[in-house]
Write a structure and sequence with these properties.
With about 750 residues, the protein is an alpha/beta fold. It has 23 helices and 26 strands. The protein is globular, with a radius of gyration of 27 Å. The structure holds alpha-D-glucopyranose. Alpha-D-glucopyranose binds near residues 70, 164 and 217.
């Protein structure tokens, strides 16, 4: 009897393998994954042994009760593991805890299939780097990749296999709190950063258990939520979707991202977690994505609220048939998928495809050889918060800082200062240095601005006063702050948002300084002392007349574990700030959406013509434009040249510009290349970033900076959604921000 059963199973395995090979090799599935025959054979062998319930278990992701990153928790997740009905757990970490849960899966279930452990390691695991929007201000792709690399190393050392990052949503509305988690408003910069972050997290593969699966999220166009209100409706054309919001996701696929996460929002009437065009047609077919797609937190269930599904079971049918492979926390596949298959509403072959994609990852991670390979307490102790990691966090934080204003060269401050007042509700707040989505980051490990200043000026008399709260309206500490300021040579004033005021479910309708912070700044200006305003925030802030009144303004975002030291390095001139804004800072919230690459309209603003596109009460220009950032030195662009004035679609244009450091400090400039397609079969933005280079110049030094622009770089989605470049004139500018004036024109002839 046993022999017959074994023979039967063996026969099944052979048939399963042959069928699978035919499907994959025949090209019927365009998204045939990079072939690893050994893994494919093992996936098929295991799949053939699994019951339907066990398959559905692999498509189920539950959170542990260690953290709550969404509206529901499930107390029975350990029992679910034991029953083989959950294949992945998130919000569980450390080598010890993951080992405990993994043991249940491996030793107490019928097939012993190891769990995947996922977590939101967004800008560091324990060593916390600046929030992603801050890192993006560095425009330093190597630094950004290194930050993700270190995050991956620390996460993998703590039992994690998978991070729910990078968030690659383009965001043009700073009311939306999740702008903090991404790379800002620009598609070109966002795509380059998406690639760097995926490569950082996934490293050189998983053999050494020092890398984690990346997860490009939130697919798609989540950043286009109406009115910047989180989870709100997204109603944009397919042309805009493909031109603005999809390229960073495609860059993530090209960089080898193994997982994707669907977004909460609908796109044009269909929730993303059941959007066949997004998931099947574009992601898995057009782009050949070989990994698996997980939903966001209960986003399948939420299709009932969307008014797209009658009930959870119907939502599950819509999602799985649209291409969602794993259900995060909704327990919809867990409760309804078997019935849906019995009723013929879902084919088991779709389930097999999803399970294959998931098992492939587990085999690739080496979890079947050693389910505990990532749960090594000794390695965890050795790697977490290492000096090397802390030094890297300080370096990336420095590079993320943007100098917005520096009247009369108030900065850098002299190292011989005798009396310094450090004031503000964020000046000595450890927890706010972490920002939002700070994973296992611990506030106690953070260096505050006050601590950084004390370390930088050990012999100075340093007075600290909180001055106000972040949100509360009381001014009880104003007098104390004023008194401290009166005795000082300079006031360093840390104001902005609390870390929780950006990130998920943190939209703001008024993006000014909260509470009475603006009044605090103005009150301290009356001391007549020089004021350096240090901003800590997760989005552009509207500063009103402070933007002209405060002599020095430094944008530091939420700078992470080493933030205080990094900011002090910049204030003291030990690092010459080189950051450039990845987002536009509006003058007021009424201007939103306001980004550099808008359309010209038929009546472009003319101050002398009433009937042109403008406001009665505010200029069209921003407070600070995309790409803007000052330095302690100055840079001059000259002699912009192209090697040809016309080119055809098989040729490129070589562009060169002379860049000179004309100031008194060595420094790094990010030279930016912008292009305008003057006439198109659909209207084109007034400018588009098409290249950038970071250039270090000693004071007085000059360098020729070169760019290459090809016809491919000029492609866009035309009226028929064909991705094409069109002949015609193109204006080109090179400069230090999106307002660059030094320009020339070239023509694509055919
Ligand atoms: C949250 C977020 C998502 C995160 C997930 C798991 O709701 O939208 O970015 O990865 O749930 O915590």
């Amino acid at each position: 009897m046993l022999f017959k059963k074994t023979l039967h199973i063996a026969a099944l395995l052979v048939v399963a393998y042959l069928m699978n090979s035919f499907v994959l090799r025949s090209g019927i599935m365009k998204d045939a994954p990079p072939r690893n025959d050994a893994i494919e054979r093992r996936v098929d062998s295991l799949l053939a042994l699994m019951t339907l319930e066990e398959k559905i278990g692999q498509m189920t992701l539950f959170t542990s009760d260690w953290e709550m990153t969404g509206p529901t928790l499930r107390a029975t997740y350990k029992e679910d593991i034991k029953k083989g009905r959950v294949g992945a757990i998130f919000n569980a970490h450390t080598a010890a805890y993951t080992k405990e849960l993994q043991r249940i899966a491996v030793e107490e279930t019928r097939l012993g299939i190891p769990l995947l452990f996922g977590y939101d390691v967004i800008h560091g695991y324990k060593t916390i780097f600046p929030i992603p929007l801050g890192e993006s201000a560095s425009w330093d792709l190597q630094a950004i990749e290194k930050s993700a690399r270190i995050a991956g190393v620390e996460a993998a050392a703590s039992g994690l296999h998978w991070t729910f990052a990078p968030m690659v949503d383009i965001a043009r509305d700073p009311r939306w709190g999740r702008m903090a988690e991404g790379a800002g408003e620009d598609t070109y910069l966002g795509s380059a950063i998406a690639k760097a972050r995926v490569q950082g997290f996934q490293g050189n593969g998983f053999d050494n258990a020092d890398a984690v699966l990346a997860c490009a999220k939130h697919f798609a166009a989540y950043g286009a939520a109406q009115a910047g209100r989180d989870y709100h409706t997204v109603d944009i054309s397919e042309q805009v979707l493909r031109e603005v919001y999809l390229p960073p996701f495609k860059a993530a696929v090209d960089a080898g991202a193994w997982t994707f996460m669907t977004s909460f929002n609908e796109w044009n009437g269909i929730p993303a977690s059941a959007h066949e065009q997004l998931l099947k047609d574009i992601l898995k077919w057009e782009w050949g994505f070989p990994g698996f797609v997980v939903t966001d937190y209960t986003s399948i269930n939420e299709m009932v609220q969307h008014g797209y599904a009658a009930d959870f079971k119907h939502a599950g049918e819509l999602s799985v048939n649209a291409g969602v492979d794993m259900d995060m926390q909704g327990a919809v596949y867990y409760n309804h998928l078997e019935q849906l298959i019995r009723e013929g509403k879902v084919k088991e072959s779709r389930v097999d495809d999803a399970v294959r994609r998931i098992l492939r990852m587990k085999f690739m991670l080496g979890l079947f050889e050693n389910p505990y390979k990532f749960s090594d307490t000794e390695r965890e102790k050795r790697l977490i918060l290492s000096q090397e990691h802390l030094a890297a966090a300080r370096d990336v934080a420095r590079k993320s800082i943007v100098l917005l204003r520096n009247e009369n060269q108030l900065l850098p401050l002299s190292k011989n200062l005798k009396n310094i007042a450090v004031i503000g509700p964020l000046a000595d707040s450890k927890v706010d240095m972490l920002g939002n989505w700070s994973a296992a980051g611990d506030a106690k490990d953070c260096v505050t601005l006050l601590e950084g200043v004390r370390a930088k000026w050990p012999n100075a008399q340093i007075k600290y006063a909180r001055g106000s709260d972040v949100m509360q309206m009381n001014k009880v500490d104003f007098a104390n702050a004023y008194a401290a300021a009166k005795k000082a040579d300079v006031i360093i004033l840390a104001v902005g948002e609390a870390g929780w005021m950006s990130g998920e479910a943190a939209s703001r309708s008024d993006i000014g300084l909260p509470g009475v912070q603006t009044e605090l700044v103005k009150y301290l200006l009356t001391t007549g002392k020089p004021v350096v305003m240090v901003l800590m925030n997760g989005r552009p802030l509207v500063l009103g007349d402070l933007a002209e009144k405060v002599p020095a303004i430094v944008e530091t975002w939420f700078a992470g574990t080493q933030g205080g030291h990094a900011i002090a390095d910049v204030l003291a001139g030990d690092y010459n700030p080189s950051g450039k804004l990845p987002v536009t800072f509006p003058r007021n919230v009424g201007q939103i959406p306001l980004h550099y690459n808008m359309k010209n309209t038929g009546r472009p603003m003319n101050p002398n013509d009433k009937y042109t596109s403008k406001y009665l009460d505010v200029p069209n220009t921003p407070q600070w434009p995309f790409g803007f950032g000052l330095s302690y030195t100055t840079f001059e662009y000259s002699d912009l040249k192209t090697d040809r004035s016309s080119f055809d679609r098989n040729e490129s244009v070589n562009i060169s510009v002379m860049l000179k450091n004309t100031g008194n400090y060595d420094g790094e400039e990010t030279a930016q290349l912008y292009v305008r397609d003057l006439i198109g079969s659909v209207t084109r933005p007034v400018r588009e970033l098409k290249g950038f280079q970071k250039v270090f110049l000693k004071k007085g030094e000059s360098k020729t900076v070169q760019f290459r622009l090809s016809a491919d770089d000029l492609r866009f989605y035309n009226h028929d959604l064909r991705f094409r470049a069109e002949p015609g004139d193109f204006d080109i500018w090179v400069g230090g921000d999106s307002d660059a004036k030094l320009g020339t024109r070239v023509t694509m002839v055919k």
